[in-house]
Amino acid sequence: MSSGLRLFLRQKKAVAGFIIIAALCLTALLAPVLAPGDPAQRVGRSHQPPTAEHVFGTTKMGRDVYSQFVWGARPSLAVGFATGLAITALGTAIGLIAGYFGGRTDAVLDLTTNAVLVIPNIPLLILLASFAGTVGPMAIMAIIALTSWPWGARMTRAQTLSLKSREFVVAARMVGEPWWRIVFVEILPNLVPLIGINLVGSIIYAIVAQTTLEYLGFGDPLNVTWGTMLYNAQNSSAIIVGAWWDIGAPAIGIAIVGLGLALLNFTFDEIANPQLRSGPALSRWLRLNRLRARELRAAR
Predict the structure, then answer these.
(1) What's the Rg (C-alpha) of the chain?
(2) CATH number of the structural domain 3-299
(3) How far is CA 294 from its chain centroid?
(4) CA gap 193, 203 in Å, rounded
(5) What is the pTM for the complete model shown?
(6) Residue 80 contacts residue 206 (beta carbons within 8 Å)
(7) Beta-ladder partners of 219
(8) What confidence tens digit (pLDDT) does each residue in 32-42 have?
(9) Burial level of 41, CB count in 10 A (0-12/13-18/19+)?
(10) How far is C-alpha 17 from the geometric centre of its chain's CA atoms?
């Protein structure tokens, strides 16, 4: 087991974040078992509060909020994770190529990255979605992925520029190693913590961006997702009529996903930057010193 993995497992934040994300993913995978039936089916009265029969209450159309929450986790998490992977892969590839090859290649890719980076993402997403009309999950994923990679590319490029002048990379070039082996064997493994940070941040952003587009009405209202749940709840004035459960269930689901990913992100930060681990170590050292001082006073 590598030292990074051991450090990851020792972190309570990492374990808690992993459990949260794993539980939500398992809930989405087991949707046919946990919530059998059609989530769009009318099963109760309009805006019925949570009861034993409908634990999350019902919507204005009498649909079970729990069933919609479980089934809505599937596309929301799928689009979030798939888009996060696409953003990370695209940004890592562009950053590696620009940082390693340098020269004209770096100048062109850096100019492209800066041009996309200064464009406000959310307004651009809304503009593209408005031209496309009602868009499905795949279109939303493509729009987010193609407009959100520059941040990861900038980080990867900067780190690659630093690594390619290190002794082990210079030695690999001197012995005649091909460029692809230097990039994938010598440089890429040293970027794993940075890639992890980029991946987690991209997933969080993708889920929020998807929810934003669907909440604004650019998603397919017939698809059950957490974003369309919020859109339908807003259209039915759920908050005004006091049906807090209608909007609370998807909002809490998104918040829990963000919490779990943020906990994982904190751990990747500590792995990538050992200086961040000095805080917990200092706290343990101070507690140990206080305990020893207390024992000395008791011995006297």
Answers:
(1) 24
(2) 1.10.3720.10
(3) 45
(4) 16
(5) 0.80
(6) yes
(7) 135
(8) 999 888 888 88
(9) exposed
(10) 12
